[in-house]
Amino acid sequence: MDQLWAPWRLAYIAAPKEKPTTTGPDCFICRAVAATDDRANLLVHRTECSVVVLNRFPYNNGHLLVCPRSHKGKLEELTTEELLDLQLVLREMIAIIEKRMRPDGFNVGLNLGAAAGAGVPGHLHWHIVPRWNGDANFMPVVGDTKVISQSLDALYELLIEALRT
């Protein structure tokens, strides 16, 4: 592997950063939490500390976001109760997807900060992405297109039904 040395970039990397402004009406997670129409906001589950939202632009079929209800962008800002609730909700949603969608595996991840890929760096959210053996095909490679095999409405209904039982 080649290495490219650029020590002059340290000043940029180490400089103080502005606080994220994605709060209140600018944060789609906060809007979903505050709204009364869960379906319109793709919010499928609420607990005292957490919410689950369908990813409007999914990486794969069944892509969910598990988020704290409160607008917090760093793990150390979470209370012990919030952290435990988020992990229990992650476990519950994975179990539902395993039972109802039968994936062969999952990618579960948290992007901390914009540099790590967080689209909403001010509001923590864990991604649950179900994966199936063979779900990678020629479409992304040849056509630069990802095939999602289920509508968000159908996924919403599947999850709501599963959560009721």
Q: Could you characterize what this model shows?
A:
This protein has 165 residues and is of the alpha+beta class. The chain has a five-stranded antiparallel β-sheet with strand order 1-2-3-5-4, sandwiched between helices. The protein has helices at residues 10-14, 28-34, 80-101, 138-142, 152-164; strands spanning 43-46, 50-54, 64-68, 105-110, 126-131.
Keywords:
globular; HIT family, subunit A; alpha+beta; single chain; five-stranded antiparallel beta sheet; 5 strands; 165 residues; 5 helices
Low-confidence stretches: none
Tell me the β content. Answer: 15-25%
Counting helices, strands and paired strands, the structural category is alpha+beta
- How many DSSP-defined strands? 5
CATH topology call? HIT family, subunit A
- As laid out across the biggest beta sheet, the strand order is 1-2-3-5-4
Fraction of residues in H or I helices = 25-40%
- Outline: globular
The helix/strand series, from N terminus to C terminus, equals HHEEEHEEHH
What is the radius of gyration computed over CA atoms, rounded to a whole number of angstroms?
Answer: 18 Å
| Number of discrete domains | 1
Give the rounded overall mean pLDDT. 85
Q: Main beta sheet, described?
A: 5 strands, antiparallel
* Assigned CATH architecture: 2-Layer Sandwich
For the record, the CATH class is Alpha Beta
| Cα end-to-end separation | 52 Å
| CATH superfamily grouping | HIT-like
The quaternary state of the protein chains shown equals single chain
Number of helices: 5
